[in-house]
Design brief:
By secondary structure, the chain is mainly α. The chain has one domain (3-62). The protein has helices at 3-15, 25-38, 54-62. It starts with a helix and ends with a helix. This is Class I SAM-dependent methyltransferase. It comes from Ardenticatena maritima.
């Protein structure tokens, strides 16, 4: 395996923890902020750069 491929796959493994992470308090704080800006549901939110989707889950939990 080439040097660049080793570096790439090592970084990919490091980043992949994002996709299996739990919804944490920081995600819920972001959801609270978004809720205060967006207003009362029902609303639609497009989460760009979603990573593992934890922010979207935290918003969905709020209703």
């Amino acid at each position: 395996m080439s040097s660049w491929a080793r570096k790439f796959y090592a970084k990919q493994a490091e980043w992949s923890g994002i996709y299996w992470g739990n919804v944490e308090e920081r995600h819920r704080r972001k959801a609270e902020w978004a809720y205060s800006v967006i207003g009362v549901p029902p609303k639609r939110v497009l989460e760009l750069g979603a990573g593992g989707g934890q922010n979207a889950i935290a918003l969905a939990e709020k209703g």
